[in-house]
Amino acid sequence: MAELIARGPDAALSWRNTLVDGVAVTLGRAPADGWAAAWDGQISREHAALRWQGGRLAVKRLDAARNPIFFRGLAVTDFTVAPGEHFVIGNTSFHVVADSADVSLDSPEPHEQQTFRPGDLRRIQFRDADHRLEVLSHLPKLLAESSGEDASLARLVGLLLAGIPHAEAAALVQRQDAPADDGRQVQVLQWDRRRDAVGRFQPSQRLILEAIARAESVLHVWNAAGGEPAFTLAENLDWAFCTPVPGEASRGWGLYVAGSFAAARSAGLSTEAGTRDLKGDLRFAELVAELVGALRQVRQLERRQAVLRQFFTPAVLETMSAGDAEQALAPRETDVTVLFCDLRGFAREAEQWRENPAGLLARVSDALGVMTHHILRHGGVIGDFQGDAAMGFWGWPVAAPDGPLAACRAALDICAQFGRAAGQTGHSLANFQVGIGIAHGRAVAGKIGTIDHVEVTVFGPVVNLASRLESMSKHLRVSVLLDEPTARYVREHMPRAEARCRRLGRVLPFGLTTPLMASELLPPAAVDPTLTDQDLARYDDAVDALVAGRWTEALELLHELPAKDRARDFLTIFIAQHNYTPPPGWDGVIAMASK
To answer: Residue 233 has what pLDDT?
Structure first.
């Protein structure tokens, strides 16, 4: 396996990436998609194009590159590099090596083993303490500035070598949940060594598994200091240690460092001093592991927070973070307002887009994005997605006495955005409309589910009613349909300059046993002048006449409404279907024949 190793002016500024045959990579300081040497200001944002082919690395300087690339002492623009050779850009050298790393399954019993519980090494005095602290101080910045997870981990390994000068090799390893076919239970995530040697680096699986299983640092010495080498691990490495990385975000991770007493002697240490100094090296590795575990835990929390932001408003997130999140998410009975929003026209568009399902999915995603955006903007919680429909609710985890107003405002904004896009050719929302149902009542809200699957949602009859209202909005030919408590709250608390409300009729939703007066939510007359306030009053009178059995009067009032009012067609057709005469036993309720 061939790799490209970047080495900056500082030992901690380095990375190692695998070269894959035929795969092109962009090299630069901050490429949009490629390998970054972010530490070197002389490297352009995108500096060179790389391709590994036929055992050699083809390098081509990009037109946007400001500074030259030096290979074999000359400034060149298009050349190939063989394993063992390198090129230079600015203050960074790039080495091509035929290298590999995998765990050793057959490492022998160590000559000496020591284990260290967390805290055992806290009093160890560092040699070169100032240097090691300087290296540690760079860790958060190095990880934060890396262009991706792989680059971040590669720089971590380089920093480990920088802080342990007489170590020969270091690796970030991870225990696997299930052994591979060849029996390996450990994966080498990133690794590096001090010398650009050719060959394999084989960390001891036995050592790694023991350290991670014990949750303690473990040191193995295979060759006694000053003794004859008995075990080389392919690099004349006669000692190694592994320290676990703590935290849920780094479960099964460990830092593995290996070296030789010969390296210690070359650094001016006696073999005895080299043995003692291993504890200082191990303490340094533990500090790195603690920092990495903490930083990864923070990043995991940030990612979870980002996911939660898709479902909760900032106010809700603040409430959850202020105390026990589990307690805040626990299901409880509360008053909620539920909004169901369904996409109209999907079946027609699906037929026209049958040759481009990915494009249709993108359009539906945009539509759902509009729904969720306005639900969240008005303080709601995203409770569920059902195909091309979304459900939001108000009243949990924070009580929302004005939930009906917030839900209605969200509904009006959703309808307005779809309305603006309806006639725009090429717009992702073109030819789509929405139907919305809103209901208010008592329900259980919170983290609901089974042992295997949970979700934050709301449960109760009010949810079923909101869903039925959304379905009925299509039959009643309106965009937003409200139940009685929501409509009553809107009439009492929402200014008519913001929204209006009219009764559409007393209906019995399909599958339910309790009838209700369904009402339509409309924009103010200044926004949608199709219906005047006088028209709405006339429709109310028609509904009263219909319920009272005065169908002739109801029909006359309905005929006075503008032809563009689609809602009047629902009552007009119902009256015509019954031959303009109330049926025997008429109780004023229109039973819906389907959802």
So the answer is: 44
Separation in Å, CA 327 to CA 130, 267, 314, 356 = 45, 56, 18, 45
Mean pLDDT of the chain, nearest integer: 84
Task: Please give the backbone phi and psi of residue 438, each rounded to the nearest 5 degrees, phi first.
Answer: -130, 130
CA atoms within 13 A on the CB side of 221: 18
Separation of first and last alpha carbons in the chain? 62
Strands 2-7 and 199-201: unpaired
How far, CA to CA in Å, does 139 sit from each of 163, 255, 286, 295? Answer: 11, 15, 13, 10
**Sequence-separated (6 or more) residues with CB below 8 Å from residue 582:** 549, 551
Burial of 524 (0-12, 13-18, 19+ CB in 10 A): middle
Positive or negative, the CA dihedral 30, 35, 38, 41 is negative
Report the SS3 class of residue 449: strand
- C-alpha to C-alpha distances, 22 to 16, 31, 50, nearest whole angstrom: 18, 19, 10
H-run or E-run covering 520: strand 516-522
Exposure string of 526-562, with b = 16+ CB inside 10 Å and e = fewer, is: eeeeebeeebbebbeebbebbbeeebeebbebbeebe
Domains, the chain, ordered by start: 1-100 (2.60.200.20), 102-309 (3.30.450.40), 323-494 (3.30.70.1230)
70-108 tens-digit pLDDT? 999 899 999 999 988 999 999 999 999 887 777 887 777
Angle, helices 271-309/314-322, rounded to nearest 10 degrees: 130
Among 67, 47, 55, smallest CA distance to 21 is for 55
**DSSP line for 524-545:** -TTT-TTS-HHHHHHHHHHHHH
Q: Of the candidates 481, 343, 360, 478, which has an alpha carbon nearest to the alpha carbon of residue 417? A: 343
SS3 237: coil
CA distances from 192 to 157, 255, 438, 554 (A): 7, 12, 60, 85
250's tokens: 């780094």
The answer to whether the bond into 485 is cis (omega within 30° of 0) is: no
- Count of CB atoms situated within 10 Å of the CB of 223: 21
SS3 355: coil
* Of 536 and 190, the one with more pLDDT: 536
- Strand, helix or coil for residue 316: helix
For 255-265, letters b (16+ CB in 10 Å) and e give bbbbbbbbbbb
> What is the Cα–Cα distance from 209 to 206, expressed in whole angstroms?
5
Measured between alpha carbons, how far is 459 from 433 in angstroms, rounded to an integer? Answer: 27
pLDDT band at 58 (very low <50, low <70, confident <90, very high): very high
